[in-house]
TrEMBL record:
It comes from Phytohabitans maris. Residues 83-397 form the Glycoside hydrolase family 3 N-terminal domain. This is beta-N-acetylhexosaminidase. The keyword Zinc does not apply. The lineage of its organism: Bacteria, Bacillati, Actinomycetota, Actinomycetes, Micromonosporales. It is an enzyme of class 3 (hydrolase).
Amino acid sequence: MLLLAAGCQSSPPAPAPTTSAPASARPTPPAGSSPAQRAAALAGTLSDEDLVGQVLMPYAYGSSATDVTPGNKAGNQQLAGVDTPAEMVARYRLGGLILVGFSADDPTSQNQGTTNVDSPQQVRGLTTGLQAASAKLAAGSAPLLIGTDQEYGVVTRIKTGVTALPSAMGAGAAGDPRLTEAAWRAAGDELAALGVNVDFAPVADVLGNAGSSVIGSRSFGADPTQVSAQVAGAVRGLQASGVAATLKHFPGHGHTAGDSHDALPGLGQSRASLDRGDLPPFVAGIGAGAKLVMSGHLDVKAIDPGTPATFSRKVLTDLLRGQLGFQGVVVTDGMNMAPAKRWPAGEAAVRALNAGNDLLLMPDKLPEAYNGLLSGLRVGDLSRARLVEAVTRVLTLRFELAGGAAPEMSTVGSAAHREAAAKLAAAAVTQLRGACGTALRGPVQVTAAGGRDTARGWLVEALRAAGVQVVTSGGTVVHLVGYGDGQGDLRKGAAVTVAMDTPYLLAKSDSPVLLATYSSSQPSMAALAAVLAGKTPAKGRSPVPVTGLPRSSCTAQAG
Protein backbone atom coordinates (compact mmCIF):
# COMPACT_ATOMS: atom_id res chain seq x y z
CA MET A 1 0.00 0.00 0.00
CA LEU A 2 2.87 2.35 0.77
CA LEU A 3 4.42 1.71 -2.61
CA LEU A 4 1.13 2.21 -4.44
CA ALA A 5 0.50 5.47 -2.63
CA ALA A 6 4.02 6.70 -3.23
CA GLY A 7 3.79 5.73 -6.88
CA CYS A 8 1.21 8.47 -7.45
CA GLN A 9 3.84 11.11 -6.73
CA SER A 10 6.18 12.42 -9.40
CA SER A 11 9.90 12.88 -8.86
CA PRO A 12 12.58 14.60 -10.90
CA PRO A 13 14.65 12.24 -13.02
CA ALA A 14 17.43 10.38 -11.32
CA PRO A 15 20.97 11.27 -12.35
CA ALA A 16 22.50 9.26 -15.12
CA PRO A 17 24.58 6.26 -14.11
CA THR A 18 28.10 7.21 -13.17
CA THR A 19 31.22 6.13 -14.95
CA SER A 20 33.73 4.89 -12.41
CA ALA A 21 37.10 6.56 -12.21
CA PRO A 22 39.92 4.03 -12.61
CA ALA A 23 42.05 3.60 -9.54
CA SER A 24 45.09 4.90 -11.46
CA ALA A 25 43.28 8.22 -12.05
CA ARG A 26 42.56 8.86 -8.38
CA PRO A 27 44.83 11.23 -6.46
CA THR A 28 47.57 9.61 -4.46
CA PRO A 29 48.29 11.62 -1.29
CA PRO A 30 51.87 11.51 0.02
CA ALA A 31 52.84 8.49 2.11
CA GLY A 32 51.96 8.96 5.75
CA SER A 33 49.14 11.37 5.01
CA SER A 34 46.47 11.65 7.70
CA PRO A 35 42.83 10.74 6.98
CA ALA A 36 42.02 14.46 6.89
CA GLN A 37 44.79 15.13 4.37
CA ARG A 38 43.69 12.23 2.19
CA ALA A 39 40.10 13.43 2.41
CA ALA A 40 40.99 17.00 1.41
CA ALA A 41 43.08 15.77 -1.53
CA LEU A 42 40.28 13.51 -2.76
CA ALA A 43 37.51 16.08 -2.26
CA GLY A 44 39.47 18.53 -4.40
CA THR A 45 39.24 16.20 -7.41
CA LEU A 46 35.58 15.18 -7.24
CA SER A 47 32.96 16.31 -9.74
CA ASP A 48 29.87 18.16 -8.62
CA GLU A 49 27.89 14.93 -8.92
CA ASP A 50 30.35 13.02 -6.75
CA LEU A 51 30.48 15.80 -4.16
CA VAL A 52 26.71 15.83 -3.79
CA GLY A 53 26.52 12.06 -3.44
CA GLN A 54 28.98 12.05 -0.56
CA VAL A 55 26.57 13.86 1.77
CA LEU A 56 23.64 11.47 1.21
CA MET A 57 22.89 8.36 3.26
CA PRO A 58 19.57 6.80 2.20
CA TYR A 59 18.15 3.39 2.94
CA ALA A 60 17.43 0.76 0.29
CA TYR A 61 15.09 -2.20 -0.17
CA GLY A 62 16.57 -5.68 -0.20
CA SER A 63 18.63 -8.04 1.91
CA SER A 64 21.31 -8.36 -0.79
CA ALA A 65 23.23 -5.65 -2.63
CA THR A 66 22.56 -7.15 -6.05
CA ASP A 67 19.87 -9.85 -5.80
CA VAL A 68 16.45 -8.53 -4.76
CA THR A 69 12.87 -9.75 -4.84
CA PRO A 70 10.34 -8.16 -7.22
CA GLY A 71 8.79 -6.32 -4.29
CA ASN A 72 12.13 -4.87 -3.19
CA LYS A 73 12.94 -3.97 -6.78
CA ALA A 74 9.67 -2.02 -6.94
CA GLY A 75 10.57 -0.29 -3.66
CA ASN A 76 13.98 0.79 -4.96
CA GLN A 77 12.47 1.98 -8.21
CA GLN A 78 10.01 4.15 -6.33
CA LEU A 79 12.64 5.40 -3.90
CA ALA A 80 15.49 6.02 -6.31
CA GLY A 81 14.75 4.82 -9.83
CA VAL A 82 17.05 1.80 -9.53
CA ASP A 83 16.58 -1.93 -9.00
CA THR A 84 19.12 -2.81 -6.30
CA PRO A 85 21.01 -1.28 -3.38
CA ALA A 86 24.29 -1.59 -5.32
CA GLU A 87 22.80 0.38 -8.21
CA MET A 88 21.64 3.05 -5.75
CA VAL A 89 25.18 3.43 -4.40
CA ALA A 90 26.57 3.71 -7.94
CA ARG A 91 24.00 6.03 -9.47
CA TYR A 92 24.02 8.56 -6.65
CA ARG A 93 27.74 8.24 -5.79
CA LEU A 94 26.69 7.73 -2.19
CA GLY A 95 28.84 8.42 0.82
CA GLY A 96 26.82 6.01 2.93
CA LEU A 97 23.78 3.80 3.30
CA ILE A 98 21.74 2.95 6.40
CA LEU A 99 20.41 -0.51 7.17
CA VAL A 100 16.87 -0.39 8.50
CA GLY A 101 14.31 -2.54 10.29
CA PHE A 102 11.54 -2.36 12.84
CA SER A 103 9.66 -4.34 15.45
CA ALA A 104 6.40 -4.02 17.35
CA ASP A 105 7.93 -2.19 20.34
CA ASP A 106 10.08 0.19 18.27
CA PRO A 107 9.14 3.85 18.77
CA THR A 108 11.11 4.77 15.63
CA SER A 109 9.38 2.37 13.24
CA GLN A 110 7.38 5.13 11.53
CA ASN A 111 10.24 6.07 9.20
CA GLN A 112 11.57 2.55 8.59
CA GLY A 113 10.22 1.70 5.16
CA THR A 114 11.50 -1.85 5.05
CA THR A 115 13.64 -4.41 6.87
CA ASN A 116 16.95 -5.57 5.44
CA VAL A 117 18.64 -7.07 8.50
CA ASP A 118 17.71 -10.72 8.88
CA SER A 119 20.76 -12.58 10.20
CA PRO A 120 24.48 -12.02 10.77
CA GLN A 121 25.44 -13.91 7.61
CA GLN A 122 22.93 -12.01 5.51
CA VAL A 123 24.04 -8.62 6.88
CA ARG A 124 27.68 -9.46 6.19
CA GLY A 125 26.82 -10.43 2.62
CA LEU A 126 24.86 -7.23 2.11
CA THR A 127 27.60 -4.98 3.46
CA THR A 128 30.26 -6.77 1.42
CA GLY A 129 28.23 -6.20 -1.74
CA LEU A 130 27.68 -2.54 -0.89
CA GLN A 131 31.40 -1.99 -0.35
CA ALA A 132 32.16 -3.67 -3.68
CA ALA A 133 29.80 -1.27 -5.45
CA SER A 134 31.30 1.74 -3.66
CA ALA A 135 34.89 0.73 -4.45
CA LYS A 136 34.27 1.37 -8.17
CA LEU A 137 33.40 5.02 -7.62
CA ALA A 138 35.59 8.10 -7.73
CA ALA A 139 35.61 8.21 -3.91
CA GLY A 140 35.98 4.45 -3.63
CA SER A 141 39.42 4.50 -2.06
CA ALA A 142 37.62 5.10 1.25
CA PRO A 143 35.11 2.57 2.63
CA LEU A 144 31.43 3.34 2.28
CA LEU A 145 29.74 4.41 5.51
CA ILE A 146 27.30 1.66 6.45
CA GLY A 147 25.24 2.54 9.49
CA THR A 148 22.33 1.32 11.53
CA ASP A 149 20.45 2.18 14.74
CA GLN A 150 21.80 -0.44 17.12
CA GLU A 151 20.95 1.21 20.44
CA TYR A 152 19.87 -2.03 22.20
CA GLY A 153 16.57 -2.15 24.04
CA VAL A 154 13.53 -1.12 22.03
CA VAL A 155 15.58 0.29 19.14
CA THR A 156 17.69 -2.62 17.95
CA ARG A 157 17.81 -3.23 14.21
CA ILE A 158 19.92 -6.41 14.16
CA LYS A 159 18.46 -8.88 16.65
CA THR A 160 18.93 -12.42 15.39
CA GLY A 161 22.20 -14.17 16.16
CA VAL A 162 23.93 -11.23 17.86
CA THR A 163 24.65 -10.53 21.52
CA ALA A 164 21.76 -8.67 23.14
CA LEU A 165 22.72 -5.87 25.52
CA PRO A 166 20.37 -4.34 28.09
CA SER A 167 18.81 -1.02 27.15
CA ALA A 168 20.59 2.25 27.86
CA MET A 169 18.37 2.75 30.91
CA GLY A 170 19.44 -0.67 32.15
CA ALA A 171 23.06 0.41 31.88
CA GLY A 172 22.15 3.57 33.76
CA ALA A 173 20.61 1.49 36.54
CA ALA A 174 23.77 -0.61 36.76
CA GLY A 175 25.66 2.63 37.27
CA ASP A 176 29.09 1.31 36.27
CA PRO A 177 30.55 2.89 33.11
CA ARG A 178 33.21 0.16 33.02
CA LEU A 179 30.52 -2.48 32.52
CA THR A 180 28.91 -0.29 29.88
CA GLU A 181 32.18 0.17 28.03
CA ALA A 182 32.91 -3.57 28.06
CA ALA A 183 29.43 -4.43 26.77
CA TRP A 184 29.56 -1.80 24.04
CA ARG A 185 33.04 -2.98 23.07
CA ALA A 186 31.48 -6.40 22.47
CA ALA A 187 28.71 -4.74 20.47
CA GLY A 188 31.27 -2.87 18.38
CA ASP A 189 33.22 -6.05 17.66
CA GLU A 190 30.05 -7.70 16.38
CA LEU A 191 28.95 -4.76 14.24
CA ALA A 192 32.43 -4.57 12.73
CA ALA A 193 32.31 -8.29 11.94
CA LEU A 194 29.03 -7.70 10.11
CA GLY A 195 30.50 -4.86 8.08
CA VAL A 196 28.63 -2.07 9.88
CA ASN A 197 31.05 0.79 10.57
CA VAL A 198 28.68 3.48 11.94
CA ASP A 199 26.29 3.00 14.85
CA PHE A 200 23.67 5.68 15.35
CA ALA A 201 24.08 5.32 19.11
CA PRO A 202 24.39 6.04 21.98
CA VAL A 203 21.41 8.20 22.88
CA ALA A 204 22.79 11.16 24.84
CA ASP A 205 19.38 12.56 25.79
CA VAL A 206 18.78 13.18 29.50
CA LEU A 207 15.28 11.93 30.33
CA GLY A 208 13.45 14.77 32.01
CA ASN A 209 9.91 13.89 30.95
CA ALA A 210 8.32 10.69 32.21
CA GLY A 211 5.74 10.94 29.45
CA SER A 212 8.30 10.64 26.68
CA SER A 213 7.42 7.44 24.86
CA VAL A 214 9.83 8.08 22.00
CA ILE A 215 12.94 8.35 24.22
CA GLY A 216 12.05 6.49 27.42
CA SER A 217 14.42 3.61 28.12
CA ARG A 218 16.61 4.65 25.19
CA SER A 219 18.06 7.22 27.63
CA PHE A 220 20.62 6.29 30.29
CA GLY A 221 18.63 8.25 32.86
CA ALA A 222 17.63 11.57 34.39
CA ASP A 223 20.87 12.75 35.99
CA PRO A 224 23.15 14.65 33.56
CA THR A 225 26.33 13.66 35.35
CA GLN A 226 25.51 9.96 35.44
CA VAL A 227 24.24 9.98 31.85
CA SER A 228 27.46 11.70 30.79
CA ALA A 229 29.60 8.93 32.27
CA GLN A 230 27.49 6.25 30.60
CA VAL A 231 27.56 7.97 27.21
CA ALA A 232 31.33 8.33 27.36
CA GLY A 233 31.69 4.64 28.24
CA ALA A 234 29.51 3.56 25.32
CA VAL A 235 31.45 5.77 22.92
CA ARG A 236 34.79 4.40 24.07
CA GLY A 237 33.56 0.83 23.79
CA LEU A 238 32.15 1.16 20.30
CA GLN A 239 35.06 3.09 18.87
CA ALA A 240 37.67 0.76 20.35
CA SER A 241 36.24 -1.74 17.86
CA GLY A 242 36.56 0.64 14.91
CA VAL A 243 32.85 1.46 14.77
CA ALA A 244 31.98 5.17 14.76
CA ALA A 245 29.64 6.27 17.56
CA THR A 246 26.91 8.88 17.12
CA LEU A 247 25.59 11.14 19.89
CA LYS A 248 21.88 11.84 19.51
CA HIS A 249 19.58 13.78 19.42
CA PHE A 250 21.35 17.14 19.67
CA PRO A 251 20.79 19.29 21.67
CA GLY A 252 18.59 16.84 23.66
CA HIS A 253 15.22 15.14 23.11
CA GLY A 254 14.66 13.94 26.68
CA HIS A 255 12.69 16.87 28.06
CA THR A 256 9.95 16.64 25.44
CA ALA A 257 6.76 14.62 25.45
CA GLY A 258 6.31 14.94 21.68
CA ASP A 259 7.65 12.57 19.04
CA SER A 260 9.78 14.22 16.36
CA HIS A 261 8.75 11.53 13.87
CA ASP A 262 5.26 13.05 13.79
CA ALA A 263 5.63 16.74 14.70
CA LEU A 264 8.14 19.32 15.91
CA PRO A 265 8.62 18.99 19.70
CA GLY A 266 9.50 22.17 21.55
CA LEU A 267 12.30 22.52 24.07
CA GLY A 268 11.14 25.20 26.48
CA GLN A 269 14.17 25.23 28.77
CA SER A 270 16.22 28.34 29.28
CA ARG A 271 19.69 28.40 27.83
CA ALA A 272 21.10 27.97 31.35
CA SER A 273 18.90 24.91 31.85
CA LEU A 274 20.09 23.44 28.54
CA ASP A 275 23.67 23.97 29.61
CA ARG A 276 23.08 22.23 32.95
CA GLY A 277 20.60 19.55 32.03
CA ASP A 278 20.84 18.59 28.35
CA LEU A 279 24.27 19.40 26.94
CA PRO A 280 26.63 17.68 29.45
CA PRO A 281 26.30 14.17 27.92
CA PHE A 282 27.06 15.59 24.48
CA VAL A 283 30.09 17.36 25.88
CA ALA A 284 31.21 14.12 27.54
CA GLY A 285 30.66 12.12 24.37
CA ILE A 286 32.61 14.63 22.32
CA GLY A 287 35.37 14.46 24.91
CA ALA A 288 35.40 10.66 24.56
CA GLY A 289 36.00 11.09 20.84
CA ALA A 290 32.56 10.48 19.30
CA LYS A 291 32.91 10.76 15.54
CA LEU A 292 29.34 11.84 14.79
CA VAL A 293 26.60 13.94 16.35
CA MET A 294 23.01 13.62 15.13
CA SER A 295 20.96 16.81 14.93
CA GLY A 296 17.43 16.52 16.30
CA HIS A 297 14.19 17.76 14.77
CA LEU A 298 13.60 19.94 17.82
CA ASP A 299 12.41 23.51 18.34
CA VAL A 300 15.05 24.92 20.70
CA LYS A 301 13.18 27.99 21.84
CA ALA A 302 16.05 29.48 23.86
CA ILE A 303 18.34 29.51 20.81
CA ASP A 304 16.39 29.61 17.55
CA PRO A 305 12.63 29.51 18.19
CA GLY A 306 10.47 28.03 15.48
CA THR A 307 13.32 26.44 13.51
CA PRO A 308 14.03 22.71 13.85
CA ALA A 309 17.56 22.27 15.20
CA THR A 310 18.39 20.20 12.11
CA PHE A 311 17.95 23.37 10.05
CA SER A 312 19.33 25.86 12.56
CA ARG A 313 22.75 27.38 11.98
CA LYS A 314 22.56 28.87 15.48
CA VAL A 315 22.23 25.37 16.99
CA LEU A 316 24.59 23.39 14.78
CA THR A 317 27.25 25.84 13.65
CA ASP A 318 27.29 28.39 16.47
CA LEU A 319 26.57 26.08 19.43
CA LEU A 320 27.76 22.59 18.44
CA ARG A 321 30.75 23.66 16.36
CA GLY A 322 31.62 27.04 17.83
CA GLN A 323 30.89 26.64 21.54
CA LEU A 324 31.25 22.88 22.07
CA GLY A 325 34.10 22.51 19.61
CA PHE A 326 32.83 19.43 17.77
CA GLN A 327 34.96 18.73 14.70
CA GLY A 328 33.45 15.47 13.43
CA VAL A 329 30.51 14.67 11.17
CA VAL A 330 27.10 16.18 11.92
CA VAL A 331 24.38 13.90 10.58
CA THR A 332 20.69 14.73 10.41
CA ASP A 333 17.98 12.68 12.01
CA GLY A 334 15.82 11.07 9.32
CA MET A 335 14.96 13.55 6.61
CA ASN A 336 11.80 11.52 5.99
CA MET A 337 10.40 12.56 9.39
CA ALA A 338 7.59 15.11 9.58
CA PRO A 339 9.56 18.22 10.71
CA ALA A 340 12.01 17.81 7.81
CA LYS A 341 9.21 17.40 5.28
CA ARG A 342 7.85 20.93 5.74
CA TRP A 343 10.00 21.79 2.70
CA PRO A 344 10.38 19.92 -0.61
CA ALA A 345 13.17 17.35 -0.42
CA GLY A 346 15.63 19.35 -2.51
CA GLU A 347 15.11 22.55 -0.55
CA ALA A 348 15.29 20.67 2.75
CA ALA A 349 18.61 19.13 1.72
CA VAL A 350 20.11 22.54 0.91
CA ARG A 351 18.80 24.04 4.14
CA ALA A 352 20.24 21.18 6.20
CA LEU A 353 23.69 21.53 4.62
CA ASN A 354 23.68 25.30 5.09
CA ALA A 355 22.76 24.89 8.76
CA GLY A 356 25.89 22.81 9.38
CA ASN A 357 24.98 19.18 8.73
CA ASP A 358 27.50 17.14 6.77
CA LEU A 359 25.48 13.99 6.10
CA LEU A 360 21.77 13.78 5.26
CA LEU A 361 20.13 10.63 6.59
CA MET A 362 17.22 8.95 4.82
CA PRO A 363 16.29 11.70 2.34
CA ASP A 364 12.55 11.80 1.79
CA LYS A 365 12.89 11.56 -2.01
CA LEU A 366 16.43 10.65 -3.02
CA PRO A 367 16.34 11.97 -6.64
CA GLU A 368 14.83 15.26 -5.46
CA ALA A 369 17.38 15.63 -2.69
CA TYR A 370 20.28 14.83 -5.03
CA ASN A 371 19.10 17.15 -7.80
CA GLY A 372 18.19 19.85 -5.30
CA LEU A 373 21.71 19.89 -3.91
CA LEU A 374 23.20 19.88 -7.40
CA SER A 375 20.94 22.75 -8.47
CA GLY A 376 21.64 24.66 -5.25
CA LEU A 377 25.35 24.34 -5.86
CA ARG A 378 25.07 25.64 -9.41
CA VAL A 379 22.76 28.60 -8.69
CA GLY A 380 24.55 29.64 -5.50
CA ASP A 381 22.01 28.61 -2.85
CA LEU A 382 24.64 26.16 -1.55
CA SER A 383 28.21 27.41 -1.59
CA ARG A 384 30.92 25.15 -2.94
CA ALA A 385 33.00 25.87 0.16
CA ARG A 386 30.24 24.56 2.47
CA LEU A 387 29.72 21.45 0.35
CA VAL A 388 33.44 20.70 0.12
CA GLU A 389 33.76 21.22 3.88
CA ALA A 390 30.98 18.68 4.50
CA VAL A 391 32.38 16.20 1.99
CA THR A 392 35.86 16.51 3.49
CA ARG A 393 34.47 15.64 6.93
CA VAL A 394 32.57 12.65 5.51
CA LEU A 395 35.65 11.42 3.63
CA THR A 396 37.84 11.96 6.69
CA LEU A 397 35.53 9.67 8.64
CA ARG A 398 35.56 7.13 5.82
CA PHE A 399 39.37 7.07 5.78
CA GLU A 400 39.48 6.86 9.59
CA LEU A 401 37.36 3.71 9.37
CA ALA A 402 39.62 2.12 6.77
CA GLY A 403 41.72 0.32 9.38
CA GLY A 404 42.39 -3.36 9.84
CA ALA A 405 40.40 -6.36 8.73
CA ALA A 406 36.96 -6.97 10.20
CA PRO A 407 36.74 -9.43 13.10
CA GLU A 408 35.88 -13.01 12.23
CA MET A 409 32.20 -13.90 12.14
CA SER A 410 32.86 -16.32 15.01
CA THR A 411 33.05 -13.31 17.34
CA VAL A 412 29.32 -12.67 16.81
CA GLY A 413 27.42 -14.03 19.82
CA SER A 414 30.62 -15.37 21.37
CA ALA A 415 30.80 -16.54 24.98
CA ALA A 416 32.94 -13.56 25.97
CA HIS A 417 30.42 -11.14 24.52
CA ARG A 418 27.50 -12.89 26.19
CA GLU A 419 29.35 -12.65 29.50
CA ALA A 420 29.84 -8.89 29.10
CA ALA A 421 26.12 -8.47 28.40
CA ALA A 422 25.18 -10.74 31.32
CA LYS A 423 27.29 -8.75 33.78
CA LEU A 424 25.64 -5.51 32.73
CA ALA A 425 22.16 -7.05 32.85
CA ALA A 426 22.77 -8.51 36.31
CA ALA A 427 23.92 -5.16 37.67
CA ALA A 428 20.83 -3.45 36.23
CA VAL A 429 18.03 -5.37 38.01
CA THR A 430 16.41 -3.00 40.50
CA GLN A 431 13.99 -3.64 43.35
CA LEU A 432 11.75 -0.67 44.08
CA ARG A 433 9.42 -2.26 46.64
CA GLY A 434 9.73 -5.20 49.02
CA ALA A 435 12.44 -6.73 51.17
CA CYS A 436 15.58 -7.54 49.24
CA GLY A 437 17.11 -10.97 48.95
CA THR A 438 14.01 -13.05 49.66
CA ALA A 439 13.53 -15.92 47.23
CA LEU A 440 10.10 -16.74 45.87
CA ARG A 441 8.39 -19.55 47.80
CA GLY A 442 6.26 -22.27 46.28
CA PRO A 443 5.34 -22.76 42.62
CA VAL A 444 5.59 -19.67 40.39
CA GLN A 445 3.33 -18.64 37.54
CA VAL A 446 4.74 -16.13 35.04
CA THR A 447 2.21 -13.93 33.25
CA ALA A 448 2.71 -11.01 30.92
CA ALA A 449 0.91 -8.20 29.18
CA GLY A 450 -0.09 -8.92 25.59
CA GLY A 451 2.71 -9.53 23.12
CA ARG A 452 5.34 -10.39 25.74
CA ASP A 453 5.42 -14.15 25.15
CA THR A 454 9.07 -14.23 24.06
CA ALA A 455 10.34 -12.52 27.21
CA ARG A 456 7.96 -14.61 29.36
CA GLY A 457 9.36 -17.79 27.79
CA TRP A 458 12.93 -16.72 28.47
CA LEU A 459 12.08 -16.00 32.12
CA VAL A 460 10.32 -19.36 32.56
CA GLU A 461 13.31 -21.16 31.08
CA ALA A 462 15.75 -19.28 33.31
CA LEU A 463 13.67 -19.85 36.45
CA ARG A 464 13.51 -23.58 35.83
CA ALA A 465 17.26 -23.64 35.22
CA ALA A 466 17.64 -21.93 38.61
CA GLY A 467 15.61 -24.67 40.30
CA VAL A 468 12.31 -22.78 40.63
CA GLN A 469 9.11 -24.72 39.96
CA VAL A 470 7.04 -22.93 37.30
CA VAL A 471 3.36 -23.73 36.77
CA THR A 472 0.77 -22.57 34.26
CA SER A 473 -1.94 -21.80 36.81
CA GLY A 474 -2.08 -20.97 40.49
CA GLY A 475 1.12 -20.37 42.41
CA THR A 476 2.91 -17.09 43.08
CA VAL A 477 2.29 -14.75 40.15
CA VAL A 478 5.16 -12.81 38.56
CA HIS A 479 3.75 -10.38 36.00
CA LEU A 480 5.73 -8.69 33.22
CA VAL A 481 4.97 -5.33 31.59
CA GLY A 482 6.95 -3.58 28.87
CA TYR A 483 7.15 -0.78 26.32
CA GLY A 484 3.87 0.99 25.70
CA ASP A 485 1.92 -0.81 28.42
CA GLY A 486 -0.47 1.11 30.65
CA GLN A 487 -2.35 0.66 33.89
CA GLY A 488 -4.76 -1.74 32.21
CA ASP A 489 -1.87 -4.10 31.48
CA LEU A 490 -1.04 -4.55 35.16
CA ARG A 491 -2.33 -7.68 36.95
CA LYS A 492 -4.16 -6.98 40.17
CA GLY A 493 -2.92 -9.13 43.01
CA ALA A 494 0.31 -10.24 41.35
CA ALA A 495 2.97 -10.97 43.96
CA VAL A 496 5.68 -9.45 41.78
CA THR A 497 5.40 -6.96 38.94
CA VAL A 498 8.40 -6.40 36.68
CA ALA A 499 8.92 -3.41 34.38
CA MET A 500 10.88 -4.40 31.27
CA ASP A 501 11.04 -0.81 30.01
CA THR A 502 10.84 2.45 31.96
CA PRO A 503 9.79 1.84 35.59
CA TYR A 504 7.13 4.56 35.79
CA LEU A 505 4.17 2.15 35.52
CA LEU A 506 5.28 0.42 38.73
CA ALA A 507 3.90 3.38 40.70
CA LYS A 508 0.39 2.16 39.80
CA SER A 509 0.95 -1.50 40.75
CA ASP A 510 -0.41 -3.05 43.95
CA SER A 511 2.22 -5.82 44.01
CA PRO A 512 4.18 -6.11 47.27
CA VAL A 513 7.36 -6.64 45.26
CA LEU A 514 8.32 -4.40 42.34
CA LEU A 515 11.31 -5.03 40.11
CA ALA A 516 12.71 -3.37 36.99
CA THR A 517 14.98 -4.80 34.31
CA TYR A 518 14.47 -1.91 31.83
CA SER A 519 14.86 -4.43 29.04
CA SER A 520 13.16 -7.61 27.78
CA SER A 521 16.32 -9.20 26.37
CA GLN A 522 17.32 -12.76 27.19
CA PRO A 523 20.25 -11.64 29.40
CA SER A 524 17.88 -9.38 31.33
CA MET A 525 15.41 -12.22 31.87
CA ALA A 526 18.23 -14.49 33.05
CA ALA A 527 19.37 -11.81 35.49
CA LEU A 528 15.80 -11.37 36.74
CA ALA A 529 15.47 -15.11 37.32
CA ALA A 530 18.61 -15.09 39.45
CA VAL A 531 17.11 -12.36 41.64
CA LEU A 532 13.72 -14.09 41.92
CA ALA A 533 15.42 -17.37 42.83
CA GLY A 534 17.40 -15.64 45.60
CA LYS A 535 20.73 -16.43 43.98
CA THR A 536 21.81 -12.80 43.61
CA PRO A 537 20.65 -9.46 45.03
CA ALA A 538 19.01 -6.75 42.95
CA LYS A 539 21.99 -4.45 42.66
CA GLY A 540 20.56 -1.73 40.40
CA ARG A 541 19.25 1.70 41.24
CA SER A 542 16.56 3.36 39.17
CA PRO A 543 18.21 6.05 37.03
CA VAL A 544 14.90 7.97 36.88
CA PRO A 545 12.57 9.05 39.71
CA VAL A 546 9.33 7.08 40.10
CA THR A 547 6.49 8.72 42.01
CA GLY A 548 6.11 7.28 45.52
CA LEU A 549 8.95 4.77 45.17
CA PRO A 550 12.62 4.84 46.18
CA ARG A 551 15.41 4.41 43.64
CA SER A 552 15.97 1.05 45.36
CA SER A 553 14.19 -0.62 48.26
CA CYS A 554 17.39 -2.43 49.18
CA THR A 555 18.73 -0.77 52.33
CA ALA A 556 22.24 -0.25 51.04
CA GLN A 557 21.00 1.60 47.95
CA ALA A 558 17.83 3.28 49.13
CA GLY A 559 17.28 6.94 48.40
